[in-house]
Design brief:
two-stranded antiparallel sheet; 172 residues; 2 strands; mainly alpha
Length: 172
C-alpha cells in the first residue's frame, strides 16, 4: 500500500508540482528530509510512529526505515513542489491551503492507522499529536522557503519540546 500511496503522491507531484522551478524548493526539501532523518535517528529505538507494510509489498518494504526512505524520496519532494509551487496569496487562502494539507496528511495517517494497519503509534503519540505536528510542519515549510534561518532557529525549541515532552532517551 505504501507503494500505491507514494505512486499517488508522485503522480500528483508530476501533475501539479512546480517542476520548472524545482531549484527554488530544493533547500526546503532538504530541510524536510533533515527533520525526518533527525526523527529517525533520535527515535530509532523509541519511535513515536512506525511505518509498516502489511497489505502489499511486505517483502519489498520490510521495515520502517525502508518505508521512511521511500516517503522521503517520493512523497516529500512531491508535497513540497505542490505545496510551495501553488502557495496562494491572501490570508484566507493561505489558511485554507495550510488546513488542506494538514487535513490531507492527517487523513492519510488516520486511514493508515485505523483501517490499513500501515502505521502504528507508540510512546503516547496519537492522531491528535499528528494533527498538531502536521500544522507545525506545513507552517515551517513555508517559513523555511521564505526565511530559512528563522525556520531553523524556531525548529530548535520545537524539537526540544517534543524530545522532552515524550521523554525521548537521547544518547541511549
Amino acid at each position: 500500500m505504501h507503494l500505491i500511496f507514494n505512486g499517488l503522491f508522485l503522480g500528483a507531484g508530476l501533475r501539479w508540482g512546480d517542476w520548472r522551478n524545482w531549484k527554488k524548493y530544493h533547500s526546503t526539501i532538504l530541510f524536510l528530509w533533515f527533520g525526518d532523518l533527525l526523527y529517525n535517528y533520535l527515535c530509532y529505538n523509541y519511535k513515536m510512529w512506525e511505518y509498516k507494510e502489511s497489505i502489499l509489498a511486505a517483502n519489498l518494504l520490510p521495515n520502517h526505515t525502508i518505508i521512511s526512505l521511500l516517503i522521503m524520496f517520493v512523497a516529500y519532494p512531491a508535497t513540497v513542489l505542490i505545496y510551495l509551487g501553488n502557495f496562494p496569496t491572501g490570508i484566507v487562502k493561505v489558511i485554507i491551503w495550510i488546513l488542506f494539507w494538514v487535513t490531507l496528511y492527517s487523513l492519510i495517517e488516520y486511514i493508515n492507522l485505523r483501517y490499513l494497519n500501515l502505521v502504528a503509534h507508540h510512546n503516547d503519540w496519537s492522531i491528535g499529536w499528528s494533527v498538531l505536528f502536521n500544522f507545525i510542519l506545513f507552517t515551517m515549510l513555508r517559513l523555511h522557503y521564505k526565511k530559512p534561518t528563522i525556520a531553523i532557529l524556531i525548529s530548535i525549541p520545537i524539537i526540544l519540546f517534543f524530545v522532552l515532552y515524550f521523554h525521548v532517551p537521547v544518547g541511549q
